[in-house]
Amino acid sequence: MNTLTWRLNRNQAQISAAALAALAVLLLITGIAMAGTYHSFLRTCAAAHTCADAHSLLFQDDGVLNVVAYATMAVPLLFGLFWGAPLLAREFEAGTHSLAWTQGVTRHRWLAGTAGWALTAAALWGAAVSALVTWWRLPENAVGIPYPRFSTGIFDIQGIVPVAYSVFAVALGIAAGALFRRLLPAMATTIAVFAGLRFAIAEYLRPHYMTPLTKVFPLAAMGFGAPPATPVGSWVVRALSAIGPNGHNYGDAIQFSFMPAACRSVAQGRIIPCMAARGFHAQAIYQPATRFWAFQGIEAGIFVVLAAALIALTWRLVLTRDA
Amino acid sequence: MRTQETPAIDTAGLGKRYGSLWALQDCTVTVPADRVTALIGPNGAGKTTLLKILAGLSRPSAGEVTVLGRRPGQDAGFLDSIGYLAQDIPLYRRLTAGDHLRIFARLNRHWDAAAAADRLAALNIPVSRPVGSLSGGQRAQVGLSLALAKQPRLLLLDEPVAALDPLARREFLASLAGAAAEGGPAVILSSHLLHDLERVCDHLILLSASRTQLCDSIDNVLATHRVLIGPRQQPPAGVTVVKATYAARQSRLLARLDGPVLDPSWDVHEVALEDIVLAYMGEATSPGNSTLTAIGEAS
What we know:
The complex is a heterodimer.
Chain A: H1 2-48, H2 54-59, H3 63-71, H4 75-94, H5 96-100, H6 107-136, H7 138-143, H8 161-180, H9 183-205, E1 213-218, E2 235-243, H10 271-277, E3 281-287, H11 292-320
Chain B: E1 9-18, E2 21-27, E3 30-31, E4 36-40, H1 47-54, E5 62-67, H2 76-81, E6 82-85, H3 97-105, H4 113-122, H5 136-149, E7 154-157, H6 166-180, E8 186-191, H7 194-197, E9 203-208, E10 211-217, H8 218-224, E11 225-230, E12 239-246, E13 251-257, E14 267-269, H9 273-280
Parallel strand pairs in B: 4-8, 4-9, 6-7, 7-8
Antiparallel strand pairs in B: 1-2, 1-3, 1-5, 9-10, 11-13, 11-14, 12-13
Helix pairs in contact in B: 4-5, 5-6
């Protein structure tokens, strides 16, 4: 099985290895330079109270590279499209499955061999890409301002979740290929389901993995030039919002419509003290930085379970459907 | 090595349904293990369906099937015992014939690498070019060599020569006949034309309209079928009319005989295998009868 799998997927493996090597070179060169800048900056910034400027300092010349790092978010999808979807769909389209299925190996072993290698490769490649990006972002993760590693988008390109996304995407491509037996529908399904699920989970499910914390501030915190409202590195699930005396959340901007009548006619600078005196305060809802790895674990677990379900579906389709 | 008692294939009431449509129905056939069998039928008669069931690629919806005494399925012993070549000879187009031989050697327990290499060399088939660049006839030979290298006890070939030109067809059948000679596997090969296979086969399964019409050795088929020419009257006793053609005062019956026809009003003539097959397939009779008007058929 191993030889067959290798010979049929050698091209993809070589292209992926080349892309990974290119990414590694790019990130290593810039990462080492960044680390140097960062460490020399750290030695001076504490005294000068300018540590919050580290982000702009680190990226002043590397805007494009920052985009490259974000673009690695698409890497799992590429695995799903170019490793997962063709794995079975191509066999069915060419009819070679009937050749493979009448050799001296059962379909169980054939599928375990082919899919096993694809999933393993996805996990390894995903881990390699994630390790590079995680390492590259170490200085910025340490700064934590203004983009902590916990924030949406950055959370998704480092740690262990890219490994789980990669395994899931490949499992999805394989299952779609087993279901449709055509490459294009399998690829289209892979894109749609992967993008849809990733978005839905990141947007609607992830904030609720653990009950978020609420931090209450005086309403003055919503004024201009207010200091960062939540602990450094935490993920702000709901930005600083105005809370009325009745407990109602009026959102992140103080608006004329919900001002008490008495405060509408006061001078600009007196509005906030006026509202505060009438029971208004501010609050932020956030996940603290210490939960980063718990969230990584939960999200990775979700995608690994989804991948397992897709592999079970594939197993069933391959073993029970006619050639 | 062969066990004479174990037939190559044995089916009873075998059927396969796709949705509400039966692709194969009530197929009951037994083929001894030393035969080269022609599986004949018009397009859509269920030949591919039957071969896929026999190869374990498709599960029957009804009936029983054993191949070399085993139920086709996912067990290595069964898979070792069959060789299968699908219609259109699917191969991994970017791999060479040599790649195929090396890879498949590792997927099979009784692989005869030397014989496969010798066959391809004898046929002058390039083993280091991607099979996608080979001619149809060469690809068919590569497919056959792969199937034979497994050293199967039953070789199932689905329309192997349909896409080949006459020369490649002849070469393919010649090499198949060589492989199937003494000590080789039992073979079942399908075609919609008997003409392709007549020379290499000694057994016949005829499928038409999803049903088995005939399953017998070709010798027996020839011995039991006759054309009867006689007056327009009831057919003689002891015959099953396959196809009847009537003229003004004459009947021409192609019939299966259960015994000798004793009624002297009927002339009994031998009939060619192709005519028998065509009669079962419900097609036009041979050109010799073109002056007669077909006004009715029985089957």
